[in-house]
Amino acid sequence: MRKSIYTIIAFALLLFTLSCNEDNSGNNSKTGNKVTNNKTVNNKSKANKMYAAPSELQYMSKKEGFSYDKFYPVGWSDDGKFAYVVEPVDENSGLYFFEIHIYDIVNNKEVWTWKYESEDGGSVQSVWNKNADLLSESLNEYNIIQTKKMALKKSKMSYKGNDYEILMDTKLETDQDFGIDIVKGLKLSMKSPQLGAKDFFEQQMDNRDYILSAYVPGLLMSPKGGDRVAVICQKERVGAAGPPNVVFFEIVGTNLSTGFTKN
Q1: 10 Å Cβ neighbour count for 33?
Q2: Lowest mean pLDDT among 26-30, 98-102, 176-180
Q3: Strand runs (DSSP E) across the chain, as ranges?
């Protein structure tokens, strides 16, 4: 009889232990992995990798009478993704704006973005501190390695014994309503005396864009190899509420080794 009681107690303890193990296993499954943008992210191995707020990089020479979007590069991944922050101009809305982008330089497409706005003002530092976990999670997901100092290289440069120059051709049309020339299209190309030439980006503008000018102030090179570069395409547009005009930028990806054709 006593033996039967001991057997029952032992069996009950075994069931209790198995039940606890299943609960713990389930909890680990929920906290260790998170699905973001339809991809499973292993937070357990990357949870300690946090990112600091980036510093501003001047991508042009500022002039009076214009408003400028601000540019804060974050870093690169080994496979050619470039992360950066933009502080868009406030055009008399009274709001503070913050955007972070992760851009695929290889395929020239944006893979992730997050935007923030506030009626109470703000700064890159304050928004970053407040949302550090969210931002670091996505930067970890795309394996971004933060680069604290980035140098803007000129559109005419040398690299690995080759000389390069990035050129922009713009198509202008006169706006019938305002009688001003606006950019209707642009094409980016690169030429090298050693490698040849190539076209690597083309864009058509909408009539409502009112782009007055565009040019390439320079580029950023990936420190991760692959000869990949992020070209800064700077544009000037008419202000939403009139003067001042707004200067902003877009990122275009290319590389310094492939796609060239010699004449």
Answers
A1: 13
A2: 26-30
A3: 33-36, 39-42, 66-68, 70-76, 81-87, 96-104, 109-118, 145-146, 156-159, 162-174, 181-192, 196-204, 211-221, 228-237, 245-255
Q: Map tokens 């931002």 to a residue.
A: 135
Is residue 39's pLDDT more than 70?
no
Residue that is last in its domain, among 128, 146, 164: 146
- Is the per-residue pLDDT at 157 higher than 80? yes
Per cent of the chain over pLDDT 70 is 82
Residue 111 shares a structural domain with residue 161: no
Which of 51, 121, 111 is CA-nearest to residue 79? 111
- Domain membership flag for residue 1: no
Residue 106: name the closest of 218, 188, 36, 200 by CA: 200
Return all residues near 161 (Cβ < 8 A) that are at least 6 apart.
Answer: 194
Q: What is the mean pLDDT of residues 110-132?
A: 96
Query: Considering 97, 123, 146, which residue would you say is the last residue of a domain?
Result: 146
Average pLDDT over residues 182-195: 97
When divided into structural domains, the chain yields a total of 2
28 occurs within a structural domain: no
φ, ψ for residue 171, nearest 5 deg: -105, 120
Query: Structural domain of residue 75, as residue ranges?
Result: 50-146
pTM of the model: 0.80
CB contact at 8 A, 233 and 249? yes
